[in-house]
Amino acid sequence: MKITTRIFGTLALAMLPLASKAEGIHRMEFLPDEWHLAGFENSLDLSGIAAANPQQCLVGSDESFYIQPGVIDHAKKRIESKRPIALSIQNTGKGGMEVDIEGVAFSPEDQAYYVVGSHGLGKKKGDFQPDRHAVYQVPVDQGGKVLRDKIRRTSLLPWLEKTPVLEDHVKQPLQQNGLNIEGLTYAKGKLFFGLRAPNKNGRGFVIELAPNDLFTGKPGKLQVHDISIPKGRGIREIAAVKDGFIILSGNASAEASKKIPVTMAPGPDDRFDVYFWNGTDASDCVKLGSLPQNGGKAEALLILEDMRDHVDMLVIFDGLQGGEPMTVRFHR
């Protein structure tokens, strides 16, 4: 099987005609293929996945401080976990050992995965946890094996605090439109971070930054794309494909908690819509459809195949055992 683009992707259900703005995209199809993720720790909380090659991938959980390599078996439609790899963390105290991993991407140019934390406050208490504000570079060898001793850590926080459109939302509760990253992908030498929040009057945000600038550059103003997303909705995942990006949306705000009893969330976080964005035109963000409600939250996306006439991908759900992957074909 030839796999030409491999980061993480998504789509919806059924077969739907699309608007003409999404050039070359005319329908989506839910495939009967049943994939399984087996042996992963915190398998109810899988939140990010990307593949370095047809056989090796990396999986993250938003309730852990480690990453988990996986082996992909296309014939068996199975992804098998290997031994977890701990990431460097600052807080080893009670209740603080989590990075809140929200996105994983792979750069073939760098031969490295990138793993991002939410860069937001704790959802229940609204507390600042340094390890949530981390980005990791995870190099691999030519065979896709993680080089543990070469993992590097940095943070987007210094950049976020220097970016006018975002700075007022940094270190604010997610229930009140506080900044929160939930998606990550890689395309054309750049990392693209999808923001769950803020949503400003029906505009969502995608951050674009070169990996080298992030790890070796001096913090400055970020390049920020604002795209049309309904008010109260946020980017929950982003995946690069040949002709643009697939974007998954859900509630921008988190549900209320005892510490933060007031929320801007419009209702239960149980609807996940899918959009196509060409990556350059802010007005060209076309809704493709909605995922079926299955009791989980659409969270992690893996492209299986990106071909001239179609894209096959997995949608993985938080809150369901092993992510209960949904297989979708995206017809161009």
TrEMBL record:
Q: Which InterPro entries match?
A: DUF3616
- The name this protein goes by in its record: DUF3616 domain-containing protein
Species of origin reads Luteolibacter luteus
One family name in Pfam for this protein: DUF3616
Keywords tagged on the record: Signal
Q: Where is the signal peptide?
A: 1-22
Pinpoint the DUF3616 domain residues: 45-127, 145-319
Signal found in the keyword field:
yes
